[in-house]
Specification:
This protein has eight helices and ten strands. By secondary structure, the protein is α/β, with parallel strands linked by helices. The protein has one domain: P-loop containing nucleotide triphosphate hydrolases (Rossmann fold). The strands form two sheets. Strands 6-7-8-3-9-10 form a six-stranded mixed sheet, sandwiched between helices.
């Protein structure tokens, strides 16, 4: 279970132009749950995701995964990257998140080797192929660089790379907003199947209310730095 308690984040803290983007944010994500975080652009949705994955330091509050704190205390808290690896994120633009010079297959192989999911290159290639099949990518695309892939294909590579790290929680941060309508539906379907078949907990972050209504079990809305009560619980 992921537990977020009293999370705070202010940019330009202590200055006249300080902006509080997260104020007293608290919620839980149960194992196997599909949670949505909604709100217009600029309300702090991506900042929240970056704090959960260690890319942004909070000013206060705590984040726990399975009872283990991901951020240490103090004025400059440190992120527990070993435990935090269980939370992975799929970003809005797959072309920006993938190395443009690295072949798609190698990106997944490197993630497997880095995480210990494969003991050597031969095993990494075998598991890479399994992940490509899981996200419905032809194995022939493993030899292509991101620029030679469609947006939907590149996003599937990004998902496969995230899965290579064996996450318990996957955050999709506007992961479909740069795709065409058909690819959007395919990616949402893939993520919900991963949730159903593998028990992967999901956090969907989007401003698209229709998409979130279809994809999520529960919707939380960020507005003016605070989290509004759940719009729906199933």
């Amino acid at each position: 279970m992921l537990k977020v308690s009293s999370l705070e984040k202010t940019f330009n803290k202590g200055k006249k132009n300080a902006v509080t983007v997260l104020s007293d944010i608290s919620f839980t994500l149960e194992d196997g749950e599909k949670l949505a975080v909604a709100g217009v652009s600029g309300v702090g949705k991506s900042t929240l995701a970056r704090i959960l994955t260690g890319l942004e330091r909070p000013d206060g509050g705590s984040v726990e995964l399975n009872g283990v704190s991901l951020w240490s205390g103090g004025k400059r808290p440190r992120y527990d990257r070993a435990h935090g690896r269980k939370i992975q994120m799929v970003f809005q633009s797959p072309y920006d998140s993938l190395d443009p010079m690295q072949k798609a297959g190698r990106a997944v192989e490197e993630a497997l080797l880095f995480s210990g999911g494969a003991k050597d290159r031969k095993q990494a290639v075998k598991k890479r192929d399994e992940l490509f099949e899981l996200v419905r990518l032809p194995l022939s695309l493993a030899e292509r660089r991101p620029s030679a892939l469609s947006g939907g294909q590149a996003q599937r590579v990004a998902i496969a790379r995230a899965l290579a790290l064996s996450p318990e929680v996957l955050i999709a941060d506007e992961a479909t907003s740069m795709l065409d309508v058909t690819s959007q539906a395919q990616i949402v379907r893939l993520l919900t199947e991963l949730n159903r078949d593998r028990g992967l907990s999901l956090i969907f972050i989007s401003h698209d209310a229709d998409l979130l209504d279809i994809a999520a079990d529960r919707i939380l809305t960020l507005k003016d730095g605070v989290l509004l009560p759940s719009d729906r619980e199933d």
